Amino acid sequence: MRHFVFTAALLAAGPCLADPLPSWNDGASKSAIIAFVESVTDPASPDYVTPADRIATFDNDGTLWAEQPLYFQFLFAFDRLRKLAAEDESILTSDVLRAANAGDLETVAAAGEAGLLEIQSVTHAGMTVDEFLAESRQWLATTQHPDTGKPLVTMTYQPMLELLSYLRDEDFTTWIVSGGGIDFIRSFADDTYGIPPWQVVGTEANTVYAVGEDGTPTLSKEGGVTFIDDKEGKPVGIMRHIGQRPIFAAGNSDGDFAMLEWTTAGDGARFGLIVHHTDAEREFAYDREGHVGVLDRGLDEAAGRGWVLVDMANDWRRVWPDGE
Amino acid sequence: MRHFVFTAALLAAGPCLADPLPSWNDGASKSAIIAFVESVTDPASPDYVTPADRIATFDNDGTLWAEQPLYFQFLFAFDRLRKLAAEDESILTSDVLRAANAGDLETVAAAGEAGLLEIQSVTHAGMTVDEFLAESRQWLATTQHPDTGKPLVTMTYQPMLELLSYLRDEDFTTWIVSGGGIDFIRSFADDTYGIPPWQVVGTEANTVYAVGEDGTPTLSKEGGVTFIDDKEGKPVGIMRHIGQRPIFAAGNSDGDFAMLEWTTAGDGARFGLIVHHTDAEREFAYDREGHVGVLDRGLDEAAGRGWVLVDMANDWRRVWPDGE
Ligand SMILES: [Ca+2]
Ligand SMILES: [Ca+2]
Question: Could you say which residues form the signal peptide (chains A, B) (predicted)?
Fold first, then answer.
């Protein structure tokens, strides 16, 4: 009897309930997300999870915003390198630095991760964390995407913004767990995603505390990286910062494989999501090959592991917050 | 007129307002804390701070719970060393390890921080983070203090527990920033202080992600330390984990000097608090000398820097949750 009344009340309320994911087309991906969220938030469900344990982690590049033709943080590093080299050419101490300064992305790409880290280390060092944040914010506010001409901060994925809001409305905490630099991401995560600095996990630069002659303390980036939050580093970063295993993880490349593996190996209901870039018309289409966002093993194993592979072209009604 | 009505309402409500810090004696320390909290939480105050920026950081050993005769984590490490050595004596590969196993604390103390880190590395390695947390919880639940005979988890300071609650009631977030191991502190911080794992910053051990032959992923402590969250490391740890400067910091030793310096150098109203161990009768009396909790520079400079030096003997009506 109580059950009947409850169901009737829900049915009556039904037509008034707003769709929490309006930019997602109806289909298996959207249904799976909603079914998971309902199962872990319904106190009567065997899969119920208390709010404190509703941890959801998101990769950033290629998962929450675009990453082509290159991670935006590297576009920032290249712009900064050109600016620094214009003032003092002697900082260009290696082939990869000279190539980056000349805009020769092929040579830079050929140098792989080590080359990119060298550029990042040179361009992100020798300033305080506060100066870095201000520089990054200024750059993001004034820089357009090289292909689309749109402001970079508008190249987030509307369906993923809705997913973040939906999870938070259901008392999840949402975290970014990115291979990108923690300070770079913090410079826009609160404004762009509603994610405060302490819910950002990322690659960490060598940071040093010092007190100036006038007694003013500073934290400065001294060059070099102390922690790489990518691949097997992602579960390590999660346990360092969050201290418990997520129940939901979303990524787009094999750099997220370990995070999804760690997340979904936990007891109880778990959710793994991979954004598959299938939409050459509205965004970019890529997976098994390229400089960024390589998705190979994840593509092969997602189904077997019960991870939801989101097909951008078919699952998303709209890609961009300000457009189609 | 509006002001008058508001004041009258406050006066009328006055006798009903519970004292947020009943275990603190009336005096300068208690008044300063309450005046600070009121100034940053009153929207009409020039010092008003939005809740998202009300970050309060606390050292743990000697600030939230006792640290004599030795940090409790080292008592844990010694007990674990004896247990491991009883199974396999060959782990005792150095003088400091043999001394710790024999209970020769003087030799261990003479080896300084390096000796303690060696013991910690040997005893905290070779297990998963989950196993470590379980082991630590089990030990804390069954171990009494060597001098007082009280369960260790009851040796927290009641006035500081009240301060944590008071700040949280006023929409602060409360963080631990400790030189102790992050996993050790997380094993009891939620139950003991109401502080969730992601609000614990501490010294970090080398942690490795691996997948077993059966496909089960684990995070294991492999020995060695990757980050020491002490002295100049505390502001670094704060910016890694929290990503913004606190407005309130509490500590008890020179290991907290940089944290208080960094916190109180920020703009706007700031609060630095040092617990001064002056109470040989109810707790322990120590400051400028000893193995643990040395407070020397902080004692000299607190007044000049506007930090509140809490005199345990005089400022605290009660020390322990379960007693005097
Ligand atoms: Ca990615
Ligand atoms: Ca301490």
Answer: 1-18
Per residue, the 3-state secondary structure of B20-88, as one string, reads CCCCECCCHHHHHHHHHHHHHHCCCCCCCCCHHHCEEEECCECCCECCCCCCHHHHHHHHHHHHHHHHC
Query: In chain A, whose CA is at the least distance from the CA of B208?
Result: A236
Q: Which residue type sits at B268?
A: G
Task: Identify the domain boundary among B84, B112, B142.
Answer: B142
Statement: residue B180 has pLDDT above 80: yes
Q: What is the DSSP letter of B284?
A: -
Q: How far, in Å, is the centroid of ligand 2 from the Cα of B62?
A: 5
Interface touch A262/B196, C-beta < 8 Å: no
Amino acid present at A125: A
Give B52's contacts in chain A (Cβ within 8 Å): 196
CA-CA-CA-CA torsion for B107, B110, B112, B118, nearest 10 degrees? Answer: -20
Same-domain check for residues A228 and A120: no
Q: What amino acid occupies position B295? A: L
Four-residue CA torsion sign, A220, A222, A227, A228: positive
Q: For residue B233, which of B191, B275, B267, B204 has the smallest C-alpha distance?
A: B204
B202 plus B280 within the same structural domain? yes
Strand ranges (E), chain A:
55-58, 127-128, 173-181, 200-211, 217-227, 248-251, 271-278, 285-286, 308-311
**Greater model confidence, B38 or B14:** B38
Identify any residues that bridge with A198 across adjacent strands, giving them in sequence order.
none
Q: Say whether both A185 and A262 belong to one domain.
A: yes
Task: Give me the residues paired with residue B249 across strands.
Answer: B57, B272
**Substitution target from A176, A239, A242, A264 for chain B, most B beta carbons within 10 A:** A239
Reported ipTM: 0.92
Residue A148 has pLDDT above 60, yes or no: yes
